[in-house]
Write a sequence for this structure.
């Protein structure tokens, strides 16, 4: 639905409720179904942002004021004061829930405040009694205690805090050889909030923020969680992950373009390119495969998790690939080849050692770069052309740095790459001007 | 979500959010009021914890114990450290136990590492003393520059009750750290 229509609907809904045409519940459901208007809501967005920022600042301010006079307070007073931010946050939340508050700014602000207050209270009590913090446990308790406010106030800011917090917890837990697979349970707890948001209106700012956070945090979490008994398994898992994002971005996002509106495509594409660059180095392929199977010192549950993850990612990517196959788009197909190449590289490297897999990826990057440039030229897209050129330039520069060629040869190569850039841009600009005329 | 459900969820959340901090308070308050006092020899260092502000990190000297059967234990294992007091009145760890001891004082902790000769090193759950930033910095300056003969004697008072240990106060050359800093 167009923004204009959604705005109209939002103006009309309160009138309908007033005249008893629809119930408040139904109005809510209609609003949820159509989502929020993107344009024109800048003022509301600003209110939300400043409301949240205000709440966060007030929360921190209260804590700082306490901290200034902390040592002159008795233990009892300190204890009462520790609970104060929490009680304030709860009161505010309770009042909003009781009123059935509609205002996004109030809800987000209160929920963000409550989230921080929970952490502050536990921390302050810890200080009062000189308890050394058990970091993973502290973060876990903080997250779980704050989670209900996300649902109560339907607020995205604490949901984003929560997603980030879940990764932080996983990292801390990994440090103490804990059960990192709890990360998935933590994500499962927030999914009833996230899923409808994304399903109903994946183009709203809220959904986009959540998808960005989720995709980036997963990218970090994968690295932490993987407890690969076969060294180098990350090569395959990350290849699947980024390809999965890229293909979903192409197939399911409302905007097919490479932009802020399409986080999956952006992260998927950049991730695939960066991975390919990493894979073009020989060192990556050194000492991987089952000859180097490490059985000792593994947490068995975490290990099983790797195989499940690998299976799911492979299934998901294959399914998307079958869908994308029908479109016969050269560039999409080329990007989809990444996991296949990664698996081949992995097999080759574990049998024959290094020297072949990295060569394959050098060739792959070359092909990708050329295909991106060609696509850019075809679509008259300056940014796409330059993206492709950048990929090629990076490949050439990196390989020349590695090589033992003399300065003259390197210099000439750089001049050629630079000229290529200028030439491509000049052609594009001329073409675009021609188009305008 | 229906309003009734929301209100119920709200009440549940409030109770949950209050239960944890309040139970923390009660547990530690009980230790502070009824716990037995032990003196531990110590030396401080001063790091910075981004979550909780300034504190003095205390290096407790008695953190290891020799055991006859090191194979019984592993790193990270939860154990009970049994305490006794030496001739000078300082506490020392006299043994380890997997179950809570009945007759002797003890605190709950984890094994940090075990050396092959049978010495078990423990994590000390009372190694932090929170102070206002300015004081912590002053304490650090005061204590770090002085070694050997010059080093002031430091010990801490720890309250122990049913395995729960709380660092109550830090003493430097026989004075409470707060008072000691005032004399400088």
């Amino acid at each position: 639905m167009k923004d204009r229509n959604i705005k109209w609907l939002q103006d009309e809904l309160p009138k309908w409720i007033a005249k008893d045409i629809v119930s408040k519940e139904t109005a809510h459901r209609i609003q949820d179904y159509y989502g929020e208007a993107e344009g024109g809501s800048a003022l509301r967005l600003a209110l939300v942002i400043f409301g949240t920022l205000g709440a966060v600042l007030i929360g921190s301010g209260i804590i700082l004021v306490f901290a200034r006079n902390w040592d002159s307070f008795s233990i009892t007073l300190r204890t009462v004061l520790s609970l104060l931010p929490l009680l304030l946050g709860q009161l505010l939340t309770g009042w909003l829930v009781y009123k059935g508050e509609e205002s996004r700014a109030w809800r987000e602000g209160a929920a963000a405040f409550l989230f921080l207050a929970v952490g502050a209270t536990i921390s302050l009590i810890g200080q009062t009694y000189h308890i050394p913090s058990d970091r993973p446990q502290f973060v876990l308790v903080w997250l779980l205690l704050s989670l209900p406010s996300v649902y109560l106030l339907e607020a995205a800011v604490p949901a984003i805090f929560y997603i980030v917090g879940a990764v932080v917890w996983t990292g801390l837990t990994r440090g103490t050889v804990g059960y990192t697979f709890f990360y998935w349970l933590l994500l499962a707890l927030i999914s009833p909030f996230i899923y409808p948001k994304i399903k109903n209106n994946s183009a709203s700012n809220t959904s986009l923020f959540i998808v960005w956070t989720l995709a980036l945090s997963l990218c970090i979490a994968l690295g932490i969680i993987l407890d690969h008994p076969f060294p180098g398994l990350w090569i395959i898992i990350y290849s699947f992950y980024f390809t999965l994002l890229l293909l979903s971005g192409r197939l399911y996002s409302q905007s097919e373009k490479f932009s802020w509106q399409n986080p999956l495509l952006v992260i998927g594409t950049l991730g695939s390119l960066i991975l390919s660059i990493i894979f073009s180095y020989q060192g990556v392929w050194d000492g991987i495969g089952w000859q180097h199977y490490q059985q000792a010192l593994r947490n068995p549950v975490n290990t099983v998790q790797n195989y499940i993850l690998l299976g799911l990612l492979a299934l998901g990517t294959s399914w998307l690939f079958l869908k994308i196959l029908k479109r016969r788009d050269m560039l999409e197909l080329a990007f989809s080849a990444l996991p296949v190449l990664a698996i081949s590289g992995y097999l080759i490297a574990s049998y024959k050692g290094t020297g072949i897999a990295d060569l394959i990826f050098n060739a792959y990057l070359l092909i990708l770069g050329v295909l991106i440039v060609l696509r850019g030229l075809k679509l008259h897209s300056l940014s796409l052309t330059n993206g492709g050129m950048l990929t090629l330039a990076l490949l050439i520069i990196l390989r020349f740095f590695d090589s033992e060629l003399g300065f003259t040869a390197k210099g000439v190569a750089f001049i050629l790459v630079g000229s290529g850039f200028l030439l491509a841009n000049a052609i594009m600009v001329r073409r675009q001007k021609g188009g305008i005329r | 979500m229906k309003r009734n459900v929301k209100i119920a969820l709200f009440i549940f959340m409030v109770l949950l959010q209050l239960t944890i901090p309040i139970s923390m308070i009660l547990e530690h308050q009980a230790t502070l009021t009824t716990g037995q006092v032990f003196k531990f020899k110590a030396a401080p260092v001063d790091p910075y914890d981004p979550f909780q502000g300034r504190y003095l990190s205390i290096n407790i000297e008695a953190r290891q114990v020799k055991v006859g059967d090191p194979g019984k234990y592993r790193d990270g294992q939860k154990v009970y450290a049994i305490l006794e007091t030496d001739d000078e009145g300082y506490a020392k760890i006299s043994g380890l136990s997997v179950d809570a001891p009945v007759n002797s004082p003890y605190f709950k902790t984890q094994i940090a590492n075990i050396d092959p000769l049978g010495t078990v090193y423990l994590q000390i759950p009372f190694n932090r003393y929170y102070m206002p930033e300015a004081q912590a910095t002053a304490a650090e300056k005061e204590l770090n520059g002085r070694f050997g003969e010059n080093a002031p004697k430091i010990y801490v008072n720890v309250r122990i009750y049913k395995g729960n240990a709380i660092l109550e106060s830090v003493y430097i050359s026989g004075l409470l750290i707060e008072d000691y800093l005032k004399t400088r």
User: Anything to note?
Assistant: Chain B has two domains: 1-34, 37-182.
